[in-house]
Amino acid sequence: MADARVLVIMGSDSDLEQLKPAWEVLDQLGIRYEVRVASAHRTPERVRELALGARNAGFGVVIAAAGGAAHLAGVVAAHTTLPVVAVPIAGGTLGGVDALLSSVQMPPGIPLASVGVAGARNAGLYAAAILGANDPRIAGELERYRREQSARVDAADERVRTTHSKT
């Protein structure tokens, strides 16, 4: 496995199922990760410590998932220069749109990337792409993953075309 790792932080363990696709794809690509629960509002010191220590702990990317006000990714980004990928959690009155807007409307000077609501798989893939920019093994695994995706679409096209077309 690669030396570069991904730190995955969720605001609550109730976010676990929505975030699981992130580490499933990291597993598929052979990328090490650590999963933590820390809330920007309820445990702000833990979030600060995780963010400040992430680089020295060997992490190369942080995935931060939260719902509602979704301040977690922004707080993490304020305390590290590592790339931070926000995952807005679907739920609440607005179905995750509030979390999405909180993630994409960061003030100038503290950037982060955001995937769509409940987009944990894409967060894992984006973290892999970031790490793959400087790690040929990860880049190769990501290329393999994409080839396999293409092959599945080709197989589905063939199956649908042969069973549902009338020419």
Describe this structure in words.
This protein has 167 residues and is of the alpha/beta class. The protein has a single domain (5-138), classed as 3-Layer(aba) Sandwich (Rossmann fold). The chain contains six helices and five strands. It has a five-stranded parallel sheet, sandwiched between helices. Helix 3 links the parallel strand 3 and strand 4 (84-88). Helix 1 (16-28) runs parallel beside helix 5 (120-132) and helix 2 (44-53) packs across helix 3 (72-78). It is globular. The model has no long low-confidence stretch (mean pLDDT 95).
Question: What attributes characterize this protein structure?
Answer:
167 residues; alpha/beta; Rossmann fold
The chain-level structural class is alpha/beta
The total of helices stands at 6
Helix content: 40-55%
Adjacency order of strands in the biggest sheet: 2-1-3-4-5
Uncertain segments:
none
Strand content: 15-25%
SSE string: EHEHEHEHEHH
Largest sheet data: 5 strands, parallel
CATH topology group: Rossmann fold
Radius of gyration: 18 Å
Distance between the termini: 50 Å
What is the CATH class? Answer: Alpha Beta
Query: Based on DSSP secondary structure assignment, what is the total number of beta strands?
Result: 5
CATH architecture descriptor: 3-Layer(aba) Sandwich
Average per-residue pLDDT, rounded, comes to: 95
Q: In total, how many domains does the architecture comprise?
A: 1
Coarse shape: globular
